[in-house]
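User: Good morning. I'm curious how iron/sulfur cluster would be positioned relative to this chain. Could you predict the structure with it bound?
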Amino acid sequence: MNSKKTQLKGLTLHELEELFVDGGLEKYRAAQVFNWMYNHKVTSFHDMQNISKTLRAELDDKYTLLTLEKVREQISQENETRKLLFKTVDGHYIESVIIPDDGRLTLCVSTQVGCPLDCKFCATGVMGYKKNLTSGEIFDQYLLAQLSVTFPISNIVYMGMGEPLINYENTVRSLSIFSEELTTGISLKKITVSTSGIPHKIRELADTGLKCKLAFSLHSCFEDIRSSIMPINEKYSLKDNLKALQYFSQKTGTRITFEYVMLKGINDRKEDLEALKKLCKGISSKVNIIPFNSVAHTNPEGISAELQPTPLHAIHAFADRLRDANITVLLRDTRGNDIAAACGQLAITEQ
Ligand code: SAH
Ligand code: SF4
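Assistant: Good morning! Here's the predicted structure, ligand included:
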């Protein structure tokens, strides 16, 4: 590949129009190319049939659409969950997961190779940080995943490897592409960005006007406990995050999802339940209870090695007590455990 070629995949319609006009092309060509790459999912300019052969060759000379290559696909015996392994042009590996659930088909996308935040319960955290994905690499996970399945992907969650709000620019650019009227894929209402909590970025996202949903990885209502399992809490406290989440919820008119991985003896006690009930009353929200998925395959050390899942019966009881307090609770089951595709299990061994 000619490395001087400009990457088009990942550009918004506006950016594409600017690029084409600056390059001496007519503006409407941008909408045509936008449609071909994001809706028809073509990977070569030569397949863009309403564009003349000469122009296609010119585009091919200057630009590229190449971002990810699918290198492996594993299907879980349990429930048809699929884990896709992609390779970036610069030789990194990332994973996306397709989860069938109750008539929906949810795609979980990655935003970084690895993650710098080192949460103690997360396999991606253990592998460390390698790089931010480009907006093209984020969006291409959707395009390529859709080509792997017969039914349309109905929902997207930014819950794969990485922290989306650290890779803020590219996350927002990928959301903008979904939001574009010309994109026939998925509406922002069906897209959830999950964050471990970076208050100023949560506000910035609310201010973009992109009405996606936001999930916040809560995991404990107590600052000291949260800090012990999520070091980022020392920099951005729960208190500051809650203010930012309130802002997001009011500005976008959406409910915040609190993600809560059940850890035995750490966040499943009576006082945790009471604190969570109180916290939920203060903000338009629902709770997503997640059984802790083992990260033993990463050979963890320190506190990570000591973490135990809350037993299933205790998880159900915890969820029931929240429901008794009129809180909306989702209990996520562990999908794709046999292929290490469940939450927090994404860690690449290829590199
Ligand atoms: N970095 C973002 C998004 C990716 S993690 C975030 O932290 O929110 C997606 C979700 O998986 C988060 O809620 C995270 O807390 C959860 N998770 C991480 N490790 C897990 C594990 N071992 N078991 C269950 N859920 C886990
Ligand atoms: Fe990063 Fe999210 Fe894993 Fe924490 S839970 S290490 S923020 S990917």
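The chain has a mean pLDDT of 92. The CA atoms of residues 39 and 183 lie 6 Å apart.
Let me know if you'd like a different ligand tried.
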